[in-house]
Write a structure and sequence with these properties.
Blueprint lengths: L8 H10 L7 H22 L8 E5 L5 E3 H15 L4 E6 L6 E2 L8 E9 L10 E9 L5 E2 L17 E2 L4 H4 L6 E9 L3 E6 L4 E7 L4 E6 L10 E3 L10 H10 L11 E2 L5 H11 L1 E5 L15 H14 L3 E3 L20 E4 L1 H11 L4
Parallel strand pairs: 3-5, 13-14, 13-15
Antiparallel strand pairs: 1-2, 3-4, 5-6, 6-9, 7-8, 9-10, 10-11, 11-12, 15-17, 16-17
Bound molecules: 6-O-phosphono-alpha-D-fructofuranose (P6P).
């Protein structure tokens, strides 16, 4: 199918909006504001080696992880921009213990969960890192639509909207209720990959014009994998079935496409992005390495769930390995961790068979 060159992400978002006659344009506006934040972070990440922006901030986050200066920059960039975008009622970030309220009078009908800079422990080694986001429609009542709201209003002119602030309940929703999800990967080029439920589209940033252009239309993950991505340093902490599965992938069976190649960057967005394009299965299973993290390391709301939406839209699967689909989990808390097995449909099915003892 002929596609005109130079489709911008803004054009694509408007095309999506036209697919929904009742659309108010608020999701389009939300995505557009998020994209401005992404461009801002991209510029900073690409300058990191030159500015005094590398290294630790001297703080730790709720995860007990040291916060990088770039982590903090990315978190503040998204938080401050989205708090006044007028399209969301509440946010949660990997970097913040509690929910993040939006500015009074700017309450909107969506919620935003995000990991501002995943893989940030790799920043100082120039390894690709990424921002991950997940958008739901709020569960609670928005209240009366705001009146007299113009972005040009000064604080004095401001007619307070009648929106109601959102709560954690608005954020704790299943992945299959997502309205949109995506990631930005800051690598050899900066790419935006997202879905609103009508397939997965990839855009590459042209820094010379500051615009994302469609570069990977209608992304589909291959049915079967070539790569497995797992931290084998945790092998001795896994249960027996997980060890058997990884051993199986490394056996010689050329007719069956084995052994697989091992590719593990240690940056979730980078590992996921490669697997989405080339085919692969990523695993961060539960392990007995850290009693405080019996469900593995990765978080449900702003890592597993958005990537699960993307991979399912691209024809793949995302599961926990103990019989649950990521998209069907009822979240219990904002920073809940979950085992994650995500990638090509054939491979996730096969991994599940090993993990539940069927194979
Ligand atoms: P490990 C990065 O810190 C991260 O959260 C993900 O991006 C990545 O997949 C995972 O942790 C790597 O964890 O234990 O293998 O170093």
């Amino acid at each position: 199918m002929h596609r005109p060159l130079g489709i911008t992400v803004s054009r694509h978002i408007m095309d999506l909006q036209r697919l929904h006659p009742g659309a108010t344009g608020e999701l389009s506006g939300l995505l557009s504001e998020l994209i401005v934040a992404a461009k801002t972070i991209s510029a900073e990440v690409n300058m990191a080696g030159l500015a005094d922006i590398l290294g630790m901030s001297g703080k730790t986050n709720i995860q007990g992880e040291e916060v990088q200066k770039l982590d903090e920059f990315a978190n503040n960039t998204i938080k401050n921009r989205m708090a006044r975008c007028g399209y969301i009622c509440v946010m949660t970030s990997e970097e913040e213990d509690d929910i993040i309220p939006v500015a009074e009078g700017y309450e909107g009908k969506y919620t935003l969960a995000f990991d501002p800079l995943d893989g940030s422990s790799n920043i100082d080694f120039n390894v690709s890192i990424g921002t991950i986001f997940s958008i739901h429609l709020r569960k609670s009542d928005l209240g009366e639509p705001p009146v007299g709201r113009r972005s040009t209003d000064t604080e004095e002119d401001w007619q307070p909207a009648y929106g109601k602030p959102g709560s954690a309940e608005d954020l704790l929703q299943k992945g299959n209720k997502q309205v949109a999800a995506g990631y930005i990967i800051y690598g050899s080029s900066t790419m935006l990959v997202f879905t609103t439920g009508e397939g997965v589209q990839g855009f590459t940033l042209d820094p010379s014009v500051g615009e994302f252009f469609l570069s990977h239309p209608d992304m589909r993950i291959p049915e079967k994998s070539r790569y497995f991505s797992v931290n084998e340093g945790n092998y001795s902490y896994w249960d027996e079935n997980m060890c058997r599965y990884i051993d199986y992938l490394k056996e010689q069976d050329e007719a069956g496409g084995r052994p697989y190649s091992s590719r593990y960057i240690g940056s979730l967005v980078s590992d996921f992005h490669r697997n989405l394009i080339a085919g692969g299965i990523f695993l961060y299973p539960k392990d007995n390495k850290n009693p405080a993290k019996p469900s593995g390391k990765l978080r449900l709301l702003y890592e597993a769930v958005p990537l699960a939406f993307i991979v399912e839209q691209a024809g793949g699967r995302a599961v926990t390995g103990d019989g649950r689909n990521i998209m069907e989990i009822e979240p219990q808390e904002l920073h809940q961790r979950v085992p994650l097995i995500i990638g090509c449909r054939h491979d996730v099915d096969e991994a599940e068979d090993f993990l539940n003892g069927k194979k």
